[in-house]
Design goal:
With 615 residues, the chain is of the alpha+beta class. It has helices spanning 7-15, 162-173, 230-246, 248-251, 273-287, 324-341, 346-365, 390-404, 407-416, 418-422, 434-443, 449-472, 488-505, 509-522, 547-552, 571-574, 601-611, and strands at residues 50-51, 69-71, 76-77, 84-89, 96-102, 105-115, 119-120, 127-132, 140-146, 149-150, 154-156, 181-183, 188-190, 200-202, 213-214, 228-229, 296-301, 317-322. It folds into 2 domains: 1-160 and 448-540 and 558-595, Sandwich (Immunoglobulin-like), CATH 2.60.40; 162-447, Glycosyltransferase (Alpha/alpha barrel). Helix 7 (346-365) crosses helix 8 (390-404).
Length: 615
């Protein structure tokens, strides 16, 4: 509860937290949850309990002894964007008088309204009431008053997300492997880590019976540990490049990197900063490709390091695994990059396309899905295992069609992947790239009109379904109760990303607002009343499962943590099983909770994408 004069108590509660450590994280497959019977699901609300200032009520509570919680976007709102806050309690409550006041002058009320009587939310078990104050468009600092309860402060401003976007974008630079970090914005200084990746050894014997030593240095650390993975890298760079390709004007003149942070690319001065950063990861991906076109799966140590700095992890590093699905994702991402980088660096673009075609040729020669796993492969890194590869092969063919204009790729799509072209879309993830393939099909000038139409309708249908979900949820999340699993925060934003892509195909304000709702959700308008992005808002994770933050003593800002996970996939969450936590409250700000409180590069990708549309 956020009561008047209760701010000091709030800060005290934020500062309290556990710092127990585990040896490492597992980053297990998000598609294989572990059932927990103790999680309960209350009855779902039947309609969206939203009101506006114009509504009246016959019985209004002005003051109350109820312990109410006011959940809102702790960063703030765009003047012309949607604005909804949620009143929550552990028991039913009636209509309430609400107001928004100037943060510095509580007597200066700028908006008044009435909240509807509470209804129960399925995912959280809370009794909630949504209040729409979208008519308030004047810029300024504000707080909300509800029946004697006062909210955290928030901001209304046309540049309210500017600093957040910079932090999210720069989070990738701060995950660079093999490079010294000297960040003037947060004071983080790191010695180059894992220089031994220049001489990493293949973990298994190749077809020639050899275990070569290869140079696979660079790239981004995947998450809170120091592994580097091709599937996650591919899906992450794809979303960052997609944001640029769809919204190029947003990135014009948007400075995200210092000049000294772009020395790895000579044409960087003429290109958007986002492409300079993405190239750092693409260069590592290219090093992971074999001569025959196949792409190795990951690079890591043989065991999870403790919470130490990158340069302190001096164990030998190995190259693990090989898969058709990972190679297909590499094919697609490099084909996509080839057309995006061509205006700025034709030589590099040619290199990318050559590598993409080489990988595609290997895939043609290996038509059956294959994922190599050797004993001990996952002892120091996550599996990211997938037994199928059709969605990724489809994506690869679609990107090659769009980049090269070669109609043979469309013929392959129509012959082998027509169902994926028309199947209802799902959000982008390392485990399913179907939407990326559908988007490439829709936006390729070479796709026949019939193919464009079915792919367009697949995306629109999915977006319509998500809009309906948002309208039913107590916190306007697009997640179903069963979807509060590993990386739930990322999944909610990725569903918002799908709605934004649908809006590009068929303009619909509900798609844009639905995507904004997912941003509001992760920034504090959720059952935990927590901004799930480090350093952002008022109450945010102080103990993310992130080795660089823990070991350096500097909380890196702009990191989206995984969020509520009802499958309780780590020892910290498992200890909470007997509490019967609702799905949307299965979260703990604990250093050791890698299943709910870890950051990953692919978590930040849909956040990055969404922010590029929030102007």
């Amino acid at each position: 509860m956020v009561k008047k004069r209760g701010f000091a108590m709030l800060i005290l509660s934020i500062l309290m937290g556990t710092t127990a450590m585990l040896s490492g994280c597992t980053r297990s497959s998000e598609s294989k949850p572990k059932a927990v019977s103790s999680v309960t699901t209350p009855a779902i609300i039947s309609s969206s309990p939203t009101t506006s200032a114009s509504e009246t009520a016959s019985s209004i509570v002005i003051d109350s002894e109820l312990e109410l919680r006011i959940h809102l976007n702790q960063v703030g709102y765009l003047p012309d964007g949607p604005k909804v806050f949620v009143i929550a309690a552990d028991e039913p409550f009636p209509e309430l008088k609400v107001s928004v006041a100037d943060r510095h002058d509580n007597e200066k009320v700028v908006w008044k309204g009435v909240s509807p009587a509470a209804r129960q939310d399925a995912a959280s078990g809370d009794w909630v009431s949504q209040v729409d104050f979208g008519k308030l468009t004047t810029e300024g600092w504000y707080h909300i008053n509800v029946a004697g309860n006062e909210s955290l402060r928030f901001f209304i401003n046309k540049e309210v997300y500017k600093e957040l976007f910079i932090n999210v974008a720069r989070s990738y630079k701060l995950q660079r492997s093999g490079e010294a970090i000297d960040d003037p914005l947060i004071g983080l200084k790191l010695q180059p880590g894992h220089l031994q990746d220049k001489e990493a050894t293949l973990f298994f014997k190749d077809e020639k019976g050899q275990q070569p030593t290869l140079d696979v240095h660079g790239g981004w650390y995947d998450a809170g540990d120091y592994g580097k993975y091709i599937p996650v890298a591919a899906v992450t760079v794809a979303q960052l490049m997609l944001a640029y390709e769809v919204r190029p004007a947003f990135f014009e003149g948007r400075r995200l990197l210092h000049d000294r942070e772009k020395t790895h690319w000579k044409p960087a001065k003429a290109a958007p900063d986002v492409l300079s950063e993405v190239k750092f990861e693409l260069d590592w991906m290219l090093r992971m490709q074999r001569e025959d076109g196949a792409v190795y799966h990951k690079v890591s140590g043989g065991s999870f390091p403790g919470f130490i700095l990158p340069a302190e992890d001096v164990q030998d590093r190995s190259i693990y695994g090989l898969s058709t699905y990972g190679t297909a994702m590499f094919t697609a991402a490099t084909a996509m990059a080839a057309r995006i980088y061509e205006p700025f660096d034709p030589v590099y673009a040619k290199k990318l396309l050559t590598s993409s075609k080489k990988a595609a040729k290997w895939l043609d020669a290996n038509p059956d899905a294959f994922f190599r796993v050797d004993e001990g492969q996952n002892s120091g890194s996550g599996p990211y295992e997938k037994s199928s590869d059709r969605e990724e092969r489809f994506w690869a063919q679609a990107e090659l069609l769009k980049t090269t204009g070669d109609r043979r790729y469309d013929a392959t799509i129509q012959r082998e992947f027509a169902d994926l072209q028309s199947n209802e879309s799902t959000f982008i993830s390392w485990a399913n790239a179907q939407l990326l393939g559908q988007w490439a099909v829709v936006t390729s000038s070479l796709t026949p009109s019939a193919g464009k139409e079915v792919a367009t309708q697949a995306i629109i249908k999915a977006a319509d379904g998500l809009v309906d979900r948002v309208g039913m949820d107590g916190y306007r999340s697009s997640l179903l109760s069963k979807e509060y699993s590993w990386a739930s925060n990322k999944n909610a934003l990725a569903q918002g990303e799908l709605m934004l892509l649908a809006n590009e195909l068929q303009s619909n304000r509900s798609y844009v607002d639905g995507a904004a709702d997912q941003l509001h959700y992760v920034l504090g308008r959720n059952a935990m009343g927590t901004s799930y992005v480090t350093g952002v808002g008022t109450k945010y994770p102080l103990h993310p499962h992130h080795r660089i933050s823990a070991a350096s003593g500097i909380l890196v800002p702009g990191l989206l943590v995984g969020g509520p996970n009802q499958d309780l996939n780590d020892p910290v969450l498992e200890k909470m099983a007997n509490q019967g936590l609702p799905p949307a409250k299965s979260f703990v700000d604990d250093l050791s909770s890698y299943a709910s409180n870890e950051y990953a590069i692919d978590y930040n990708a849909p956040l990055f994408f969404t922010l590029a549309f929030m102007e």
